[in-house]
Design goal:
The structure holds 2 protein chains of 2 kinds. Chain A is mostly beta strands. Chain A is 4% helix and 49% strand. The chains are: A mainly beta, B mainly beta.
Amino acid sequence: NAGVTQTPKFRILKIGQSMTLQCTQDMNHNYMYWYRQDPGMGLKLIYYSVGAGITDKGEVPNGYNVSRSTTEDFPLRLELAAPSQTSVYFCASSLPGPDLHGYTFGSGTRLTVV
Amino acid sequence: RKEVEQDPGPFNVPEGATVAFNCTYSNSASQSFFWYRQDCRKEPKLLMSVYSSGNEDGRFTAQLNRASQYISLLIRDSKLSDSATYLCVVNKPSGNTPLVFGKGTRLSVIA
């Protein structure tokens, strides 16, 4: 049982480049989330989804886009990378009612924009 | 007032010590509370849920004080392996909104 899988684990981008961070889960969780965590800081919610075809903005959505075409996958797209997007990105998933069950996180993608 | 506030620490304690962390939350209607553990350069992992009556899991005890809107985590007989950042997590009681994570309290257990 793989849980939440994120790829790639590490990436260096040049300013202005684009990339997609992949996230897939095999637990049949409806809810999925993207967070970023800057060094020494807390988790900031970028986007989330409560099911296929439904996405909502979190507190820091600017510069990112998401899609949710299947229950399993929730990719995060960076269109024009900026140094401010250097961070660790975590994908998470949960059953409906995360209040009861909490989240399962992937192992993260470390992104550096130079 | 921030939604979830924690003392960032670090708390430096010797092995075998008892240490406690508090966390305050702003929404009095919040119903669900968790403690997560995050090791350096790793993802957060669920440590324990916090129940109204308080709950214990081995050396870890979680308490909830609704009147004062804080939750606590007590670690007894600290081990070197307990060194990590502990995140306080609270729900937003409105629809399907995600959980709110505190910034964490860093613990270092020293030999």
